[in-house]
Design goal:
7-stranded mixed beta sheet; 5-stranded mixed beta sheet; globular
């Protein structure tokens, strides 16, 4: 329960502020003068060094699986998570940022990230922040006209995308005449086709840009708190996508409010799968980084054992990662609930009764502010 007091009350505004003191993470951000997202990554790299930071599930193979109705679906055979430490993630981001400079990208020039939620997304964003480059976030599910609008309105010359989304640019580039460079995040299994694109546009793999930055002499260009960090485009569900300008201070202020309201601990593990193009997921993951919480990436198609891309007998991402916290939306929660209930209901009467008892027990103690370590095992 939080208490608040009125700090402003007039004809135009009624403002409340919590009377509770700021939590430890908030205080640490003040003590370290962290007023930009660039400073967040610098701080955590020095503080958490060899701790797990960003994790990616390894895809061993993609196989055909025949369903009961005779249809054949493509399914993933997945391995364990492969991790970058905080130091490795920061170093990769720094090299990526310098690699962008080598390609001709300048500080304070916008750069689009049009890709699915993944470790490379976060690394690319922080690489841009290290060179004071605002990122333009575009939903990976946005239609071609919406993507073209976001790119042309922000006058970008460089786009960061993924193996799966790259083919869109064979037609999109005609609508985006300023784009000269496309950087794609490689697929784990398939080689990316880079022919058939508009002449004069460079198509480069993500890791090549990182490698280029390793030998670069460019220095970091730290942004200021009032500099624009993100131009965050809406999903376009109510019309043309609209770009929202977020300064570094905006993002840091939101992070401080988040850590004061939601307790997160260094021994937590976050599973990240919602769009990083939305401020909800981006701030949640930024808070986890600031707190030293490892982030293992997933997708709605591989999240749980019964997800549509999981091969029969293979474990979903959540089962392997064992996260203690996650962001979500009602649709995903419904899928998770259905998956759990289907598995429980397929068991014996004793197992169903035991699950119900333990679930109610855990809910009772969590609501009182306690942990249940024995059940959590």
């Amino acid at each position: 329960m939080f208490q608040a007091k009125i700090v402003r009350n007039d004809d135009n505004e009624l403002t409340y502020r919590t009377t509770d003191p700021p939590r430890d993470v908030h205080v640490k951000m003040l003590q370290e003068n962290i007023d930009t997202l660039e400073k967040v990554f610098n701080y955590v790299a020095k503080t958490y060094t060899s701790k797990r930071c960003l994790g990616t599930r390894q895809i061993l193979s993609e196989e055909d699986e025949v369903q009961q109705n005779g249809r054949v679906f493509k399914k993933y055979n997945l391995g364990d998570y492969k991790w970058k430490t905080f130091t490795e993630a920061e170093r990769t981001a720094a090299n990526f940022g310098r690699g962008l400079r080598e390609l001709g990208q300048k500080p304070r020039e916008n750069i689009v990230i049009f890709a699915e939620t993944r470790a490379e997304w976060m690394i690319a964003a922080h690489g841009c922040f290290k060179q004071a480059m605002p990122i333009v976030t575009v939903y990976a599910t946005l239609g071609d006209d919406g993507v073209a609008h976001c790119i042309t309105e922000t006058e970008v010359t460089t786009v960061i995308t993924s193996h799966d989304l790259l083919p869109k640019f064979k037609t999109l580039l005609d609508k985006c005449p300023l784009v000269k460079t496309i950087i794609y995040i490689e697929d784990q299994l398939q080689k990316t086709e880079t022919t058939g694109f508009k002449e004069g546009v460079k198509i480069l793999p993500f890791n090549q840009v990182v490698k280029t930055g390793q030998d670069s002499k460019f220095e970091h260009v730290p942004p200021k708190g009032d500099d624009i960090a993100i131009i965050m485009y809406t999903s376009g569900s109510t019309g043309t996508p609209k770009g929202v300008l977020l300064s570094h201070k905006n993002c840091i202020a939101t992070m401080k409010g988040f850590v004061d309201m939601v307790p997160i601990y260094p021994d937590d593990v976050l599973i990240g799968f919602l769009p990083l193009a939305h401020v909800f997921e981006l701030v949640a993951e930024s808070v986890c980084l600031m707190t030293g919480v490892p982030i293992g990436y997933s997708t709605p198609l591989t999240l749980i054992d019964t997800s549509s891309k999981i091969k029969r007998g293979c474990k979903g991402d959540a089962t392997v990662l064992k996260p203690t916290c996650m962001t979500s939306v009602p649709l995903i929660l419904d899928r998770i609930s259905k998956g759990i209930n289907d598995k429980v209901n397929s068991g014996s009467a004793f197992k169903k009764s035991l699950f119900k008892f333990l679930y109610q027990y855990k809910v009772k103690w969590v609501q009182r502010g306690y942990k249940t370590p024995l059940i959590d095992k």
